Amino acid sequence: MSKIIDALVLVGGLVLEGLLALGRFVLFLLSAAAFVFMPPYKPRLLIRQIRIIGADSLFLIVLIAAFTGMVLGLQGYVTLSKFGSESALGTVVSLTLVRELGPVLAALMVTARAGSAMAAELGSMQVTEQVDAMTVMAVNPVQYLVSPRLLAGIISFPLLTVIFDVVGIMGGYVIGVGLMHGPSGAYFNGIRDNLVAHDITSGLYKALVFGLVVTWVCCYKGYHAARMAVGISRATTEAVVLSSVLVLVWDYFLTSILL
Amino acid sequence: MNSTPSNGAGANAIEVRDLRRRFDSQQVLNGVKLDCPRKLITTIVGPSGCGKTVLLKHLNLLLRPDSGTILIDGIDVTRLGLRGLDEVREKFGMLFQAGALFDSMSVFDNVAFPLVEKTRLSLSEIAAKVHEKLSAVGLEGMGHKFPSEISGGMQKRAALARALVREPEILMLDEPTTGLDPTRVGSIHALIRRTQQRFGLSAIMVSHDVPEVFEVSDRVAFMHEGKIRLYGTVAEVMAADDEVFKRFLAGRAAEEETGLAAGGR
């Protein structure tokens, strides 16, 4: 009997622990979101974060987008030509990118680049008491450090996604039409006829959600880094892994809602 | 000698009464009573894990106690809301153990940070105040450097300038000489005394530099197992007939070397 009670205590403890952690995670987002609307407003900090998350990720996004579009063009052309439907290449490439690969790959790339840096920077500020120093100087660290990053993520991700989509479509054109000599007019005609506004907006909604999720997770993990030698590296790893997993999980649910 | 009689309202910059705080199963603060008289340096010493860092984190309002009171300049800070806390925070400056300078900002911007964020001073007024404080700590002309480009001792000096820049009445210092070359310890202590006298500050310091720190202390509080076990002037504390304190003084070096000390919070 006592063994059953011990097991129940253990399970109950784990469940409570999990719920508490989830509660802290959600409260962190709510307070950061609330501080976005509270003075003092710091446009300078926001612009700086948009530069770090957005502008500094541009080269990587363009590079990955070009190769993604190119491989789609190649695979798409080879597959479609088996059915004699090379003219559908533009449709296939653009829909794949705009609906799915653009938002997801852009989010994963920004997670790897800016998200990890965000977690590491906040983690090191926490471990070296810089966050405490801010609190003691009566500057709210969530408002100063987290809110601008959250907002910058929400602004940057859709913009990067749009760039990803356009560059990817061009990459598909270069391979499918330029290299494989597919029908050139049909590529863009297919896009014009079959890519509708709903495809674009649903991709952008996804990017918006991913921007929120990635900055939320990365800031949370960095901000709560443990004060020990491995604290920062553990926080960074957890931030990148959890962000990537959540991006893919949310992608499924958003797709099922938006389709 | 276990505590001091109250000197009457207003004589103390900080008064702590029966402060208790528990972490999980550990009673870290177990009824702390402490007075920090105005315009004097009060130093808290004690073995690692005795709760001195946790006590300081209650005084600088980073942690909240389970029970007890803390009066800072006569205000009971344990009952304040967020806005009230921010007002009290303007009364004191804090020097963190490793300096806690923002490494994304230059020394100048670090020292200017509290003024830029919390006051409406013009840029030239801010620059004047920052330069005044930088020269007070012996860092003239170093404003453009980044924290990573200067030595540990200079980082402490810059952090001290930042703690002083809003001209607080109270200065709190968390192990200001940790990680410094032994030859630098004396010069930081001298700097602390000089600034305390120059700006008429009430200072409270947590230190492990026993007995060196006694040279710059007006009052010493010996903390042991979550309580202030001894309190008084340096002479009074040194003359006290207390076994635990004597063992602490004698075992200070040995304890550090063997790492017997429990991890402090």
Strand content of chain B: 15-25%
From N to C, what is the helix and strand string of chain B?
EEEHEEHEHHHEHEEEHH
Gross geometry of chain A: globular
Overall radius of gyration of chain A: 22 Å
Strand count, sense and barrel status of the largest sheet of chain A are: none
Strand arrangement within the widest β-sheet of chain B reads 6-7-8-3-9-10
How is the topology of this model organized?
The complex is a heterodimer of chains A (259) and B (265).
Chain A: H1 2-36, H2 43-53, H3 58-82, H4 89-127, H5 130-136, H6 141-179, H7 184-194, H8 197-223, H9 231-258
Chain B: E1 12-23, E2 26-37, E3 41-45, H1 52-59, E4 67-72, E5 75-76, H2 82-89, E6 92-95, H3 107-118, H4 123-136, H5 152-164, E7 170-174, H6 182-198, E8 202-206, E9 219-224, E10 227-232, H7 234-239, H8 243-258
Parallel strand pairs in B: 3-8, 3-9, 6-7, 7-8
Antiparallel strand pairs in B: 1-2, 1-4, 4-5, 9-10
What does this structure look like?
The complex is a heterodimer of chains A (259) and B (265). Chain A has 259 residues and is an all-alpha fold. In chain A, 86% of the residues lie in helices and 0% in strands. Chain A contains nine helices and no strands. Chain A is globular, with a radius of gyration of 22 Å. Chain B has 265 residues and is of the alpha/beta class. Chain B contains eight helices and ten strands. Mean pLDDT of chain B is 86; it is low at 1-8 and 259-265.
Q: Keywords for this structure?
A:
heterodimer; A: 259 residues; mainly alpha; 9 helices; B: 265 residues; alpha/beta; Rossmann fold; four-stranded antiparallel sheet; 24% strand; disordered N terminus; disordered C terminus
What would a concise description of this structure say?
Chain A has helices at residues 2-36, 43-53, 58-82, 89-127, 130-136, 141-179, 184-194, 197-223, 231-258. Chain A has 259 residues and is mainly alpha-helical.
